[in-house]
Amino acid sequence: MKLKLENIKISYPGKFTLNADLELKQGEFHTFLGPSGCGKTTLLRIIAGFNTPDSGRIYLDGKDITDLPPEKRSISIVFQDYALFPNMNVEKNIAYGPETQHWPKDKIKTRTKELLEAVELPGYEKRKIETLSGGEKQRIALARAIAVNPALLLLDEPLSAADEKLKASLKAQIVETHRKNKLTTIYVTHDQEEAMTISDRISVFRRGNIECTGTPQEIYFKPKTLYTAKFVGQSNIIEGTVSSAGDLVEVRCTQGQIFKVQNRSYKYSAGDRVTLFFRPECCTAANGTEDNIIKGRIVDRIFYGRFYTCTVQTPMGLLTVYDTYPFHMDMAECSLTVSPDDIILFSE
After folding, report:
1. In terms of domains, do 225 and 245 share one?
2. Domain end: 231, 253, 286, which one?
3. What is the pLDDT of residues 114-139, one digit of tens each?
4. Which of 46, 88, 150, 291 has its CA 20 to 30 A from that of 203?
5. pTM for the predicted model, two decimal places
6. For the segment 73-82, what is each residue's pLDDT rounded down to a tens digit?
7. What radius of gyration, in Å, describes the C-alpha atoms of the chain?
């Protein structure tokens, strides 16, 4: 099902005002990413029908559902604490939705067995909720949420309490469930790695506003705002002033270094104050013939198995560089370069 949020607004005096315009495609896995208290869960609850917006409309596959109660929206939600019914066994928890919709008993039994196999917990029908591990509870909550074949699945920080090993397993389970059932899914998290690895698209939230929406690759390498650039992943930020602007923008930093940047917008003029942004992996070893050569010295290096994270002291300050092989020696002098295509300019 397609989802459209049109001019959604709700105010929380002293906290923030939530504003949202967003469209999701059929079968899309969309993540709301941002720090705590920025409006992610609030918007999720508005979509589910638990909170009422001050203004705006919600459309599910073209139908206005803004004024419908939660049980009439064909939307299922998995809460952070799973919210399983402790007085019911696993089978009864999964069957709850189909039973309230008056499915035939044999169909409910078949559906329950089918879902337990899908979440790799066959034979768990009679287990009590208190006997389950955290990971098992999460999978039962997911099975219960999709039991009634919802038009839209909402997941509110479902992995926040899991350890790293369990997270990897549950993430795979969620993505597999999403794909197998061709669900349109919204996933709320503050974890950047989660968002980057499971999403078709990501909406980055800031103080109640959707700051930026795009694919993980767009969010990471071509962020539309400086906040997004700084919030997602590690970044290198340098301040400067435009000295000339043509197909390449030339930017002079305070320390005298000149950077050439691909001109994507043609909105800059000489004298404009700008911020240069590029990712650590965009820095490579220079051979002396490229543009944007940066001289520096490695002052710290951390080994991560597949690569090193190097901190490089330069005239512009400290830069972070990823490298898949060690430089010539620890704390060595180095010469780096970053392509004009890999630098993003932001107006100050």
Report:
1. no
2. 231
3. 999 988 899 999 999 999 988 889 88
4. 150
5. 0.89
6. 999 999 888 8
7. 25
